[in-house]
Queue: 3 jobs
Job 1
Amino acid sequence: MKNTDKTIFGFWVYLMSDCVLFASLFATYAVLQHATFGNLEAFDLANLPFVFLETLILLTSSFTVGLGLLAARQNKKTLALSLLSVTLLLGLSFLGMEMHEFAKLLAEGSGPQASAFLSSFFALVGTHGLHVLVGSLWMAVLIHRVWRSGLTESGIRKLTLLSLFWHFLDIIWIFIFTFVYLFGSLAL
Amino acid sequence: MKKIHTYIFGFTFSLVLTAAAFGLAQMHLDSGHTFPAHEFAIVAFVVLAIVQLFVQLFLFLHIGDEPKPRLGLLALLFALLTVSIVVGGTLWIMYNLSHRQTETQPNVFTEENIFPNADHNAN
């Protein structure tokens, strides 16, 4: 097995373990979704237009990172850098929106300590957000690296890993917007 | 160039699935939680999410594209099995517990029980 393949497989196994981590956070959220202790319910968090915009941003960023990796493999440095930078901008926009949502909740006394439901909400959505933050930092570092050192074999391997990570985050988000926000809007 | 169409198709398809899900949710809200019905909405959301999962797995992550032995696919299947056990098992156990508690005991976590000496006149 080539070194590149081994690295990619190893990273994939890590992503699978991350999947199980998120599964436990989802399970916790499911169990605690009605433990609102007089504070907000899921329905109160379900601002559909806002979440739809967040979703579009993240989905588009998953698209652009895929295109960026293709460009990198075709040795098109400027195109790759542009696409990766767009991805980073979209990721940061997503984070900005999410931090705004969290700040508002915290300010009105509906933070993670306010109820079991809110604890589980912040744990699930917050952990995803942290992953996006780390991914964004990683993206910035790789953009700088490609800009300075060009598209080397190891650089492309790192970009492959990052794109796997980024796609994975969008997949997790599919389940967050469905089970937290869409289900929440139903006011079950 | 052979792969770019998978990204374009994956993106477009995901957009449609996402818009459909949010559209349904908004329709449900606008109609005062009547149309579509709760049951239909729940099933629709789950189905749309799972379809989008597969779209992104195959078209963005290129699952199944690898040469044999398909270790990546194997790892994914094992992870999905673990996830089913974790989520399914948790929901089964917790529902069972809550069902048993409500059947046999009153709710222990009442305001009176937690703060027995609370002064109801104080603010």
Job 2
Amino acid sequence: MPRRVCSDLAMPSSSNFESSFYRKLGIASLALAAVLLLASAIAVNLGLSAIGSSRVNVNRTNAISRAVTDLQASVRAAETGQRGYLLTGQARYLAPYESARQRIPAELSQLSQLVREPTQAARVRAMKPILDAKLAELAETIALRSKSFQAALRIVRTDRGQALTERFEALANEFVETQQRLLANRVAEEERDTRLTTAAAAATGLLAFLSAVLGVYLILQQRSADALALYASDLERQVEERTAKLSDANRELDAFAYTISHDLRAPLRAMHGYADALLEDYQDVLPEEGRSFARSIAAAGLRMNALIEDILTYARMARDDVALRPTSLDLVVNRAQADLQTQAEGTAEITVKEPLGAVLAHPPALQQAVENLLSNAVKFMPPGSRAVIQVYSEHLEGRVRLWVEDNGIGIEPEHRARIFEPFERLHGMETYPGTGIGLAIVRRAAERMGGACGVEPRNAGGSRFWIELQAAEETTR
Amino acid sequence: MSEVPSMLIVEDNADDLNLLKRALKKAAVEVEYEVASDGDQALEALVAAVDRGQLPRVVLLDLKLPRRSGLEVLKWMRLNPALRRVPVVILTSSDTASDLTQAYDLGANSYLVKPVLPAALTAVVQQIDAYWLRLNAVA
């Protein structure tokens, strides 16, 4: 079963990303931006036409003001002409009166055409009879003067003309005041329209921009989330593939190891079996050399068998999935000791300082490692000496270190690292037999169990080998 | 041996077979035996024996065989009413092989580690004799 090793990868597992919710939101945002832009354009358009009509109003208002001012000027000009003539009796003083008299009706009619506002229009209508009466009065006084200064003066003294002028001026002033107020209103209106239009355009423009930015941001987020999800699922797929390949490789290794174990051993059995048979059945017939040859064949067979066993053990330890359990060091060491005693026939003295403690280990691997350490301790002795071995443990933080101390031949400093390599032997086969894989097995076993191993010199001669593993709370074995 | 015995040896490896024959001689096991060198041959021999009405006294069975494995032969034997009670001794190269456990589950009676030593062979032969005695006593 492939192990899922990337389950703690920071994957965007939210369903929002998977259903591309953010992309849809982003598109909606962009659509909103477009709508806002359109609204902005419409608002600006409306605003501009409003401003346009305000402007027209303002222009008209200005024209009206000018028209009424002209009218007032004309009326005063007419009066000035009349007074001048009345005073001097000379016709040239009548010139302003004459031109004004002709202008006034036209100006009044133009004014009444311009004015729309009802009260103003009423005022303009009210002006007409007054101006008509005024012109009539002026004409009358001028006509009288040409005949008699006194007669004209008499009419002037009635103030009839003055009253008409005053009435006209009052109307005209009211009109002008109102007109100025209207102008102010219209100008304010125009300004307000301009401001509103600007504000609306700015606001919708800004909103459109923000929506657009948000939309783009959301879409990009979605993109990168999609890419990440794709990458993560791709990664997961790769991991699953590799894990499957690895377990395939492990299965192949197992099958291979099993085949090696069986098929290589068959000829070895034959070799060993025939050599033994030769020795047993033909002992009397064989000369000593012949017997020696037969013994050598048997011994070679045994060595080869041991080598195959060790290689297989070493190869099997390369596998990853080693489940660690709390394991009693005491039980492991006792069993290793028992196996060794049967082999060594009690030529070694092994002292175990109990309790050794419990570690997290793979029991078969630990057993193998301890047996190798112990058998080494017994084997590598100076000829004729008795092996005295001490086994004890040291408790460190969260770890337990098992020491195997011997009084053997020791290891020079320059070799201390080498000896844990496979096939590294420091001595010839004749002096100390062995496969050269024992310590490599110890090291690999230690590493597989999350620990370490090593060797130190012993002051009194010999070596102190150690293997260190994670401490366990309690023992189950 | 009291009766005219017969033994079926199922072994494909020539050297293992030679050494086994020598061990039989050394252990003074004077039996007539047949040799089958693969699983199919073993089944043929057993069928012929049943037809003859002459069951083998013991079957020495190697597990790693060409064409049909020793475990299959054993399974077939235990399903066959005539052969169900014939004792089977497994010939194995290692006494820790998982095949051995499987063979016991399928009804093997004993085992011998190759290369077979005469002493081990003698012990097994005694077990077989005892087995048949018990069986005949019950019958």
Job 3
Amino acid sequence: MTRPAVWAGGVLLLGLGAGCASVEPRASFDRTVSVAGDRLPAAPQWVRDDAGREAVRTEIRTLLAEPLTADRAVAVAFLANPELQATFERLGVAQAEVAQASRLANPSLEISRLSPEGSAGGHLTTIGFELPLLDALLVPLRKRMAELEQAHVELEVGSALVELAAEARVAVYQLQGAEALAARLAEVERVEKAGYNFARSLFAAGNLAQLEVTLAEATWAEARVALAEARREVRHAREQVHRLLGLWGEDTAWTVAPGPPPLPTTEIALDGLERRAIASRLDLAAGRSALDALGRALALRKKLRFTPIDLDLGLETERELDGLRLTGPTLALRLPLFDTGKAEIAHLEAETKALGWQLEALAVAIRSEVREKRDDLVAARDLARFTAGTLLPLRRQALDGTLRLYNMMLGGTPDVLAEKAREIEAERRATEALRDYWIARAELERAVGGRLVSPAKEMSP
Amino acid sequence: MISRRTWLQRAAQAAGGALLLTRAEPLLSAVPPASEPAGRARKRGPYTPVTTPNGVTLPFRMKDGVKEFHLVAEEFQQEFAPGMVVTCWGYNGRSPGPTIEAVEGDRVRIFVTNRLPEGTSIHWHGIFLPNGMDGVSGLTQPRIPPGETWVYEFTLIQHGTFLYHPHADETVQMALGMKGFFIIHPKQPRAEPIDRDFCLFPHMWAIHPGTRRPDPSVMLDFNIFTLNGRVYPGTDPLVVRTGDRVRLRFANVSMTSHPLHIHGHRFWVVETDGGQIPKTGWWPETTINIPSGTTRAVEFIADAPGDWPLHCHKSHHAMNAMSHDVPNLIGTDQDAVERQVSELVTGYMAMGTTGMSEHAAHAPHMPGVENTLPMMMGEGPFGAIEMGGMFTLLKVRDELTSYDGDPGWFAHPPGTVASKVEDPSDLPPVR
């Protein structure tokens, strides 16, 4: 064998075996879930094939067989939301990028067979073989960059999971609130109906004027309108759950657990939340990771500023017309004379700075969000306590006092019914306050970067 | 003792015909002698002292020939009937205040201590006296400031039934209960002595349900009606022996007149706060109307034994707290409504569809409003009496051991009680 052939063969082998990354994204998914860790209240599943789909379907059916709670809803969403599954495929894309980055560029083979014009015999045959050498040297660096980008994507997917969990919880609380409100308004409708029937019974005996009956019927009619509107809100809240959980067809037959749930006996710790959010938010970490990657790309570009962009090493053999064979190495390179990469570097620098500013904006927004949601939580809790502990008992006392007045014939049935309606209104306020508390809590958990029951895993820098 | 009625019946039977038993002329001289109630000497001094049911007579002391009295204008709690206590303004812890009793010709000196939070004065209604003793604050004297004691003094030159009340912030002070009787007996005892002399002061109050202080801003919608500061069943009965000559004295400073009606008897109107009506001018009534700002006195012989109501004939004055705004349920069918409402409000019961009686039966067993009495009360020997307010009983008895206390229910002679017709098939035509 000639020395050039041995040499070319060696490079070929190198190219074939050089640290080729796989296209299988499973490990990336597992890493994503592991990094998100305690932030997630349920385990997401990535449906990759029909067997996976079947397994997930069984699990979904089991979850939907019980009344839907906020926790259950998150579990279903992590299995069934199609947009989430689409987001997971970004991991497949990132993994493919890593695989691509870890491969050498293909060599090129050139063959030409030239014949002279006229009748003089003979051919000029040239066979050339080229390897992009710089490319081969840069593979480790390129792979590293792709891996940084993959880490960024993993953080973004984790962040999307936290977002979806919060949205699913909020949707369930909204639905529970809407159903409780509709139940209250149904009770009000019964009160006004009784009032109308009372007026009618007096009118029938000649004890009340027609106008009074009309007024009572009008009030009842208004209560029915309010009830219809409340039932519409229930339908809308249900559909929002369907969209977030990715449910349709026979999967829409679930019932929601009655709620909203009562206030928890102990409140979550509410100090140091801003600090925790900055440390824990996956979208902020993803941004930092992207900034880091961009920084490295910029540094690399600066370092390679005056190195040739392309460097091709090759082997060429030529058989002349007279049969003389010429064989030897070839070297081709691009010289950074006119374009030294200044513009490209300026481009990268500007992008890096821009991303830096965006991260700062995100951090400011996160801090503000945390403060806002924390204050909302505290206010909602106080209101929930006040409506249930002070307002509602007062209204119940007022109803009892009114009934006593009625028992002594010092008040009439309309007075009793009016006071009952006010009691139901107080129940409505208490229900709304409780719903608002749980929604504020879900929003705060999202703002802080995930569940607040235990300390969140800090991001490694 | 033979009652007047029995005597007449026997005379009629003797006459052997249908004698119309009308009592057309005053039987003033034909009073059978009343025997003394056992163990109690009746006063036959210058006058028979008046009895103020549920009340007292103001004590006096003599000082150099002057009768001295002491009235303290103050705030206190008064029980109108068991279950209702009211914060009133009155005199010496009472509303009406203690009855002042004197004789024509007496010189009286009345000390008035003001323990109210505002100034007051006392006007002696109907009494002839020096202008400066008239008690009109700002006009004949300054107000008596809170904490001070002032004195009125004058000689009584008339006799009759009079009253005393404030003449400072009158509407408020009278609405809160300030008033009292001032009785002046004649110098010469009457030819026909009075056996029982009662003072009754009807009054109207606005005590909103659940409260315990009268509301002086109410002008028309009063809800509590009292005789001597009590509502039935808190009113003490007027106890007399059959044949007693009974005198009833009334005074009124409330916002409307009160027609007081007696059962089983008729009386003669004998006196106003303007003086005595000449005997020839006496006229008979069963109901004496007492306009606001007047007194009236009536006399009669209590010749019919029994338990006889004496009450204001404005029927809602003989009931306790009523609301004037409740829906009228008489004649309505509440079955469906009661079902619907009791599902929403536990403990709700329909009431009033057949009138108010059924409510009166239920009221004591249902949770009510504090310090508020049911509309209709009272248990009699034959069931619920269903009365309240300005309602009391004149109890006339043949046998009486004492005028004090309650002699219990009347024992009806057999055959004199309304009874059920067991077989209503043979009845007179209706039209």
